[in-house]
Write a structure and sequence with these properties.
The complex is a heterodimer of chains A (107) and B (172). Chain A is mainly alpha-helical and 107 residues long. Chain A has one domain: Winged helix-like DNA-binding domain superfamily/Winged helix DNA-binding domain (Arc Repressor Mutant, subunit A, Orthogonal Bundle). Helix content of chain A is 61%, strand content 9%. Chain A is elongated and about 60 Å long. The two termini of chain A are 31 Å apart. In chain B, α1 runs parallel beside α3 and α4 packs antiparallel against α5. The chains are: A mainly alpha (107), B mainly alpha (172). The interface between A and B is large, with 32 and 40 residues.
Chain lengths: 107, 172
């Protein structure tokens, strides 16, 4: 299994889009809620991240004629979902190891 | 509200034209939505505007780097780092270099003043100017490299490399 680490904001953007397609403001609010108010992204940072995720093919814009230009929706691509899954597996493995280590220390 | 929106729109002009044309309208709309739900506390407002304007400045800078150098320069992932802190040691280093440069210029000026009519003063001034330019460039490069290492950008660059190699090998 390929293992790698994503930065927290990128991970949160991907997690936000994993549940459902969202537009920019919805992503900001969802990230704020997911992190318990700990991560507050600026619009500059959010759109920098979205732009790069778009370039890398991890997310895509949902093309709908009815969507206004200032409220475009983004969703995960299969590539983005696969990489997010790999990241979750990596974190799961890490927390498992951490729990084992802590249990050994307490024993 | 109108003033901050004007400043926001003005700062969007710092982005490259193509980038601005693509997402400026959307960013402004999100900014307005976020602004409309701000809590009434002054501290929250200050924090919001500081975050927004700093985010725009860094976003514009990296968008330009992206446009100029493409993926060859690792700045493209720079603003994704939540843990980024500009290292104090770099600030100290920049201050030391700046102080050294100022002292060099002062010394050069005093030497030039002591030898009226000599051809050396102009050489000394040009030399001091070159030194100042080189020191500034070196300080900026050292600062950026140090900050990138601290922010873990190299780790994210590895991600893309691993993903590409995994895809070329046909792994999931």
């Amino acid at each position: 299994m390929e293992t790698f680490a994503l930065s927290e904001p990128v991970l949160l953007v991907l997690l936000s889009l994993a549940e459902q397609p969202r537009h920019g403001y919805s992503i900001l609010k969802d990230i704020e809620s997911m992190s318990g108010g700990g991560v507050l992204l600026s619009t500059g940072t959010l759109y920098g991240a979205l732009q790069r995720l778009l370039e890398n093919g991890w997310i895509e814009r949902v093309e709908e004629d009815s969507t206004p230009r200032d409220r475009r929706t983004y969703r995960l691509t299969s590539r983005g979902r696969r990489n997010l899954q790999m990241e979750i597996e990596r974190m799961r493995h890490l927390t498992k190891v951490a729990a084992l280590r802590m249990a050994r220390k307490e024993a | 509200m109108i003033v901050t929106l004007t400043v926001y729109r003005w700062m969007l002009c710092l982005y490259p034209g193509s980038y601005r044309g693509e997402i400026a309208e959307e960013m402004t709309s999100v900014f307005l939505d976020a602004q409309s739900t701000l809590p009434p506390a002054l501290a929250a407002k200050i924090s919001f505007y500081r975050r927004e304007f700093c985010g725009l400045l860094s976003g514009a800078l990296y968008a330009h780097f992206d446009r100029l150098f493409g993926p060859a320069i690792p700045f493209r992932r720079f603003d994704m780092q939540s843990q980024f802190r500009f290292p104090r040691s770099t600030v100290l280093l920049m201050l030391v270099i700046f102080a050294g440069t100022v002292l060099t210029i002062a010394k050069a000026s005093s030497i030039a003043g002591a030898r009226p009519g000599s051809v050396w003063p102009s050489f000394v001034s040009v030399g001091a100017l070159m030194l100042l330019t080189m020191c500034t460039a070196a300080a900026v490069v050292v600062g950026i490299l140090h900050a990138l290492r601290r922010s873990g950008v190299y780790r994210l660059e590895n991600v893309q490399g691993r993903m590409d190699s995994a895809e070329s090998n046909g792994k999931p």
